[in-house]
Each structure stands twice: as structure tokens, then as C-alpha cells.
């Protein structure tokens, strides 16, 4: 092992198998990935070292519907570091029924490049 | 969609409108059954997935990571297209033992709804798809007072995700079931504090990915071999006592400590909901707490089929939907008098397997037998079905993750007449 090389172990969350990856890194460069059950593990490891992302899900307040809240998600995974900022932004939304699944509720949330969309229809 | 009339006589009746029931109803229609009705007690179909707003559903079925409501939306659209009828706000409250008419078993049960009152339904076949319930606080025998603030994780999930209210501000989670882990993250994102997660066993019972993305991502600590042993507080929960559990499974002296919290969420296991199955006289397995089924997902009563978490608690909804499809098409074939069962062999398992489902094989089609080990086997091991049906090397086997044994119908049919069972097991190398 050369200078600045480091081995990290973490669980791949790409699928329910949850492989415990052994990842050798030098700074932000991934040198090798071991114990991954499939190619998704390599992609996940590289992302996780460079910029960890997760799909964000929550609810927004809605008026005039069967339920007082409507579930929402980020269209694409967001940087993990932005989760709390996004949660605060989503908490401010007051939507009005009817809502259809896939409807955009916040465009480009917190400058992440992802929209917050409704994950169900609600009337 | 809630309008229904003349459903007293149906071909295939599906009890429960969650993922298992809806998949079963779609499959029954596709197989050719004419009148297929899903009986659902809630005001909408979808079951528990409607409150599971987190992603992680549908990787097997759709190759996508959907949220629960999105997964259900796809199935509900398919159901309407397939001509499935729904009886919503309708509770099935009693099932009769199957009757015999013209040499064939038929089922009947009683329903209740605000619209039509009490009615009796006759069905050529039934698919049980009632799902499961969470083990409640009362089943745990925790000492101390009985203040407000103690909920099952799924109840809290319903509060937060559907009713729009928070159960508390400072939570402790007892047990490491997946819903508890998911709720730990959910509470954090809604601004609550999650103090810790305590698990009595030496291993996490939920999926490891949920430990990573729900606990580790948010810096929530979890403690294995720790048990919540006392509740404190008069009107509202003020804290809990927790104790370390030793290798002898008894509390370790001097490890009792107080943890302040106003909310305790329980994620300590799921139990298949089989009151109706028992009324119908269906044989229940003491290991799965669900009906004993063959690979058609047919219970000990010929005209009653069962699928999803009512049979055995699955890890993934994708498997539940698959089971639903199988039960639905089998039930349709039975209703049409086309289900043939030439041979039925029981499955015997090695002692390290705690759960097996189905428990019998007929070899009608290729099938998957799900098994769950009693204790973790860390390291390479072999999963097998003998004689000569299946063999696979695993990197490990853990109670939190089911293993799939693929049974080829061809290989099953080729078994000599002298074979009296199929042996399934896991052996460490």
C-alpha cells in the first residue's frame, strides 16, 4: 500500500442485497472495489467517494384532499449533504388538490438539479 | 371504483387490496376468471405501501427504485385495465369452512360495508391476501408505567406519512426491523431527534442497506444485544431503561441505564394476519404463522389460496407481487376446474432453517421456495434442494435476508416415484 492509500468498508445501498464493499481509495480516486456482488457496487463505490447521493422522500402539506399530506420524492438522487436543506424547503410547500402522480412541486430544489415531484395522485 | 352490485356470487374473491391481493386479482383475470373482486377494508386500495413513501420498491419487477405509492400506482392501473372489481370500505369479518358442491369445494364468507350492510359472498375460489401486523407493545411484557408515546413503527409511519402529524420529538427505536430503521430516518427528516436504536439479538433483523442509509447516513447509533426493559413517565413517556443482554440471553448486571425520550417506536417483528384463515379451517404453520401452502400457493382447503405476507413475511414487495400472481392464476384455474395436481411432496429442511415457504411441491410450474436461516452463517455455504434439484454457493446466509431455492418443474417431475420428500438445506463449507 503506497502513501495516502486508504481502505474503506461500507455497505452498498444500490439493492436490497447490501454488499459490504471493500474500497481502496487515494484521495477521491477509487483504486479498487472488492466484495461487490455486481457492477452496481463499483458505480456506487465511486459515487460514494466522490459525492454520495440518495433519493429524497418526504411529504408536503396539501389542502382539499382525502389526506392532509401528499408523498413526494426527488426525481433523481440528491447529494447527501443537501438532505436537510431540501427537507426544510419541502416543509414550506402547501399544495392544492387535485395532485397527479409525477407532478412537479418544487423545480430544481436547492440548486441540486432535481425536481421534487408527487409520488401519488391525490384528490 | 367503489360501486359494486351483485357480488354475492364471484369466481375469484381476493381478500385484501395490498400488493399481494392486487397482483393476484390481475393474474386471475389474465388467466381467464370472469368475476374477480378485491375486498378491501380501507377507503382506497394499495395496502401498507401507500404509507411506505421511501424508495426501494420494484427493483426486481420494474428495474427501478420506486416509492411505495408509485409501485402501487402501476399495479392499480394494471388492475383497472384487467377488469378487476374493487369492493372498498368493505371488511370481510367471517369466513366459513369450505362447502362441497357437485364434488368441488367452494368458499363463502361474510362482508360488511357502510353502503350495503352485511352480505354473504360465495366464491369458486378465494385468495387470502390480508398481509401481516406488527407485534405490539402488549406482546413484549415491558415493565413500568403505560404512558402515551409508545407506538409500533408502522403506526408512527401512518401518522407521519398519511395523517401528517408527528408522534413525538425525541424517539428511541426498539428492534431493528426495516420499518423501524426507515422511521428513524423519517423522524430525523421531520425534525425529531432519534436517540438510539436497541436490538435484543446479536444481529440486525432488517436489511443492511437500511442500517447504512437510515442510521449511518444520519449518525443514529444502534446497539445490539440491548433490550428495553422498563417504561417511565405518567401521562407521557419520559424515558426508558435499557439493559445489555449477555451471551446467556440474560441481562448483564450493572448495565441498566436510563435513556430520556418522549416516544418509543417498536420494530420487533411482523405476524401474518390469519384470523380469517383459521375460521376457514386452513392449516397454519407454527413456524411461519401463515397457511401451509404448496407451490400453487394453495392451502389445505383446496379452494382457498394465499399469497404475500399472510403466508410468510417477505423481505421485498417484489416477491409479494410474484406470490400474488402465482396464487391468483392458480385460484383462477381452480375456479375454472382446470387446476391439476398430479403429485404433492412435502419439503423437509435442515435444522438451521427456521422458515420455509411453500412447504409442499406439486411441480406444476417452475417455482421459488423461500427459506430463512435461524442464525447467521458468515462465510461461504451451500444452499441445496435434493435429490439433484438445486445447488448454489452463497457468500453468507443471514436471518435478515431470505434465500431463494429455484425448483425446476422438469427436474421435480423427473423424481422417481420412490421419493417421499424434497430436502432443502444450507450447509457451511
Task: Note down, in words, how this protein is organized.
The complex is a heterodimer of chains A (123) and B (429). Chain A has 123 residues and is an alpha+beta fold. Chain A contains 2 helices and 10 strands, in the order E-E-E-H-E-E-E-E-H-E-E-E. Chain A has helices at 40-50, 83-91; strands spanning 5-11, 20-26, 29-34, 53-54, 57-63, 69-74, 78-79, 94-96, 104-106, 116-118. In chain A, strands 8-5-6-10-9 form a 5-stranded mixed beta sheet. A 3-stranded antiparallel beta sheet of chain A has the order 1-2-3, with helices on one face. Chain A has a two-stranded antiparallel sheet with strand order 4-7. In chain A, strand 5 and strand 6 form a beta hairpin. The model of chain A has no long low-confidence stretch (mean pLDDT 93). The longest helix of chain B is centred in the last third of the chain and has 19 residues, at 317-335. In chain B, the strands form 7 sheets. In chain B, strands 1, 2, 5, 6, 7, 8, 9 and 21 form an 8-stranded mixed beta sheet that branches. Chain B has a 5-stranded parallel beta sheet with strand order 12-19-13-14-15. A 5-stranded mixed beta sheet of chain B has the order 24-22-29-26-27, with no helix packed on it. With 429 residues, chain B is α/β, with parallel strands linked by helices. In chain B, strand 3 and strand 4 (66-67) form a beta hairpin. Chain B has 3 domains: 1-133 and 270-336, 3-Layer(bba) Sandwich (FAD/NAD(P)-binding domain); 136-268, FAD/NAD(P)-binding domain, CATH 3.50.50.60; 343-429, Sandwich (Immunoglobulin-like), CATH 2.60.40. Helix content of chain B is 21%, strand content 34%. Chain B contains 8 helices and 29 strands. Classes of the chains: A alpha+beta (123), B alpha/beta (429). Chain A binds chain B through residues 10-13, 15-18, 20, 37, 54-55, 57-59, 61, 66-69, 71-73, 80, 83-84, 87, 101, 119-121, and chain B through 43-44, 50, 53-56, 59, 65, 67, 69-70, 72-73, 160-164, 189-191, 207-209, 211-213, 216-217, 315-316, 395, 401.
